[in-house]
């Protein structure tokens, strides 16, 4: 065996040495990468079985390497034999919470009194509607009778009135059209919008959001995700396939950073509207997206 092979350091030792050379502590690295401290220590000790799963071993190692100025892809290639192989359908189970299933059963009333109570709201609403229709019919008949009497008094008055009505209708249509346009402009100006900052596909700005924006993260496959608000971590966890997690951002949120371990399989909605954070169809699995809220 050659001397170079004997002196080749392990991947954990190499990463640790690069971290120390960069002057970073484990706590510093956790703050930068948002990877939990225990996972970083496990990587340096090469205890890969302590990580969430084989897929995340390579994802976290690459992110660690890039942060300490090493080439993550080159490092993965060089130590591919030492790292666990990944499989498309081998992932971790959800480590944070399992959404409970809810089942509710409704008992239908079986007694006559119960059936009457069940239909009572419908009967009341129907009665109110009938009364309203009768009132409208009465007012229409009264207006029609008054109009006929005025028409018989003077034909010239009718002609003048007709001219005035036509003018009034035209004016009313113009006013109505203007009012609709104004309303539409106001609605558009208050509608939530998310746009990319220039040509960037990692930085976006959201306007006209809610007071407390609700974020829903979904994944078609197992995926690790981290959400940081104004520099403080709001939530971090791993979703199972077809899993989801809801996060309500604080009212003072101005900057939100999303970190995805499997971006291709992850989708995000904000206040019920899709946040398209991958408009250029990037195939990168590990991505960091910054959203500025105004």
UniProtKB/TrEMBL annotation:
**Domain of life of the organism encoding this protein:** Bacteria
GO terms assigned for molecular function: DNA binding
Which Gene3D superfamilies does the UniProt record give? lambda repressor-like DNA-binding domains (1.10.260.40)
Region called Disordered, residue ranges: 147-194
Membrane-spanning segments: 119-140
Q: InterPro entries, from UniProt?
A: Bact_Cytoskel_RodZ (IPR050400), Cro/C1-type_HTH (IPR001387), Lambda_DNA-bd_dom_sf (IPR010982), RodZ-like_C (IPR025194)
Q: Where is the Cytoskeleton protein RodZ-like C-terminal domain?
A: 217-290
Respond yes or no to whether keyword Calcium is given for this record.
Answer: no
On whether Cell inner membrane is a keyword of this UniProt record, the answer is: no
Query: Keywords for this entry?
Result: Membrane, Transmembrane, Transmembrane helix
Q: Per its UniProt record, what CDD domains does this chain match?
A: HTH_XRE
| Biased composition annotated in UniProt, kind: Low complexity | 147-180
Basic and acidic residues bias spans = 185-194
* PANTHER family given in the database record: CYTOSKELETON PROTEIN RODZ, PTHR34475
Q: What is this protein called?
A: Cytoskeleton protein RodZ-like C-terminal domain-containing protein
From what organism does this protein derive?
Answer: Lactiplantibacillus xiangfangensis
């Amino acid at each position: 065996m050659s001397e170079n092979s004997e002196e080749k350091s392990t991947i954990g030792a190499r990463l640790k040495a690069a971290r120390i050379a960069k002057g970073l502590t484990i706590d510093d690295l956790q703050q930068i990468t948002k990877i939990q401290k225990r996972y970083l220590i496990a990587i340096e000790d090469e205890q890969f079985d302590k990580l969430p799963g084989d897929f995340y071993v390579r994802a976290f190692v690459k992110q660690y390497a890039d942060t300490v100025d090493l080439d993550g892809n080159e490092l993965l290639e060089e130590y591919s034999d030492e790292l666990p192989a990944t499989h498309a359908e081998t992932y971790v189970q959800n480590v944070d919470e399992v959404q409970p299933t809810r089942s509710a059963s409704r008992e239908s009333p079986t007694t006559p009194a119960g059936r009457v109570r069940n239909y009572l709201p419908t009967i009341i609403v129907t009665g109110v509607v009938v009364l309203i229709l009768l009132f409208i019919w009465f007012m229409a008949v009264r207006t029609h009778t008054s109009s006929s009497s005025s028409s018989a008094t003077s034909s010239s008055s009718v002609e003048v009135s007709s001219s005035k009505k036509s003018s009034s209708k035209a004016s009313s249509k113009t006013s109505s059209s203007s009012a609709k346009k104004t309303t539409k402009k106001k609605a558009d100006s208050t509608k939530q919008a998310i746009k990319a900052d220039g040509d960037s596909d990692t930085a976006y700005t959201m306007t006209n959001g809610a007071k407390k924006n609700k974020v829903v993260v979904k994944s078609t496959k197992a995926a690790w995700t981290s959400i940081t608000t104004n520099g403080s971590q709001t939530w971090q966890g791993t979703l199972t396939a077809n899993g989801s997690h809801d996060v309500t951002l604080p009212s003072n949120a101005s900057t939100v950073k999303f970190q995805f371990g499997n971006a291709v399989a992850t989708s995000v909605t904000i206040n019920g509207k899709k946040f398209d954070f991958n408009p250029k169809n990037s195939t990168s699995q590990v991505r960091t997206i910054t959203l500025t809220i105004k």
